[in-house]
Amino acid sequence: MEAKKHQFCVETTSARGRLDQFLTAQLPEFSRTRVKTLIIAGQVTVNMKPYGDPAFRVSAGDKIIITVPPPQSSKPKPQRIPLDIAYEDNDLIVINKPAGLVVHPAPGHPDNTLVNALLSHCGPSLSGIGGVRRPGIVHRLDKDTSGLLVAAKNDLAHKQLTNSFVRKTIKRKYKAIVLGVPQPHRGHVNTSIGRNPKNRKKMAVVSKGGKAAQTFYQVEKIFGDKDASLIVCELTTGRTHQIRVHMAEIGHSVLADPLYGGHRGLRQHSGSPMKTTLREFPRQALHAFMLNFLHPTNNEVMEFRSRLPDDMANLVKALEGG
User: Fold this and answer.
1) Which residues in 89-152 belong to E strands, given as ranges?
2) What is the mean pLDDT of each run of 10 residues along the chain (322 residues)?
3) Is 257 a catalytic residue?
């Protein structure tokens, strides 16, 4: 099956509207999320030029072409992948995700994901919950971020947990090792985060077109001559790469973060043990260590904690000089 192109000309009545809103109105069979995904993926042109910003304002007479790739025929398949299960019942499962495990299938990662593992562990009942490509998933962690994640095992639990994220009643805390020491030692970062216009693989603090994001942080431990610090972060929103973007924004990138400057401290520590430690650490030093929410069916308070994984615990020892 080939990709399908749809062409439209913007009428005066639609002028100054958002690009994603205009296309959603023209293509009612597609959700706005689907349209935004196609725009960001470079599948939309305006007057023969590609536009990757869903918030772009269209003008009367603009000629817009959207290319819709053929649907993926394959659904995620069950795969026997070991899971570190912190808790499980008939409604939900809490996983302690290792670094390196992708949460759901995506371009470049069609299988060997947490979804494939959940389908194998939970059985076919999971397959219809939350969409074909993300069954059971209500939130995610980056591939190289470790820690706690909850997934739903039925439609009611999925709806209730999703609503809890929308209402911001789910509490999530992370531990991160960052370059330098944030000042003050306790504070918060409150910005809008959106796609980086210069690099679509990255997110960035933006002045318009982004989504509100708030991160609270507290310094827990300082290493060496203020070379690095261990901090605790709590999220009230869940934007893509939020902690990584916010820490970089205030000048304290998550250590070893390949996208947001986590290796910049190397120049300052030439020849030091920290330089070797940084080079050998394979991923951003970020771990989701606490998850607190109300159980979706009995309203019981559920709280789970996860110790630092071995790689981050060993990193802490190295930075302490142990």
Assistant:
1) 92-97, 146-152
2) 87 93 90 87 92 92 91 75 96 96 84 92 70 78 96 88 90 96 97 88 90 96 90 94 97 93 59 63 95 95 97 90 66
3) no
Geometric angle at alpha carbon 211, from 30 and 302, rounded to 5°? 90
Which residue in the block uniquely carries the two structure tokens 């390949």?
258
CATH class as words, domain 172-305: alpha beta
In the set 20, 62, 142, 257, the catalytic residue is 142
Q: Give the sign of the dihedral formed by CA 185, CA 190, CA 195, CA 198.
A: negative
CATH 3.30.2350.10 fits domain 85-167: yes
Tell me which CATH code domain 4-68 carries.
3.10.290.10
**Residue 113 DSSP one-character state:** S
What is d(CA 17, CA 155) in angstroms, rounded to the nearest whole number? 35
Tens of pLDDT, residues 172-228: 999 999 999 999 999 999 999 998 888 878 999 998 889 999 999 999 999 988 889
Give the tens place of pLDDT for each residue, 87-118: 999 999 999 999 999 998 877 788 899 999 99
- Residue 136, burial from CB neighbour count under 10 angstroms (0-12, 13-18, 19+): buried
Say if 4-68 and 172-305 have the same CATH topology.
Answer: no
- What spatial distance separates the first Cα and last Cα of the chain, rounded to whole Å? 59
* Strand duo 92-97 + 44-46: pairing: unpaired
The model carries a pTM of 0.75
56 Cβ neighbours under 8 A, 6+ residues apart = 18, 19, 46
Give residue limits of the domains in the chain: 4-68, 85-167, 172-305
Output the six-digit token pair for 309.
């994984």
Question: Beta-carbon neighbour count of residue 220 at 10 Å?
Answer: 12
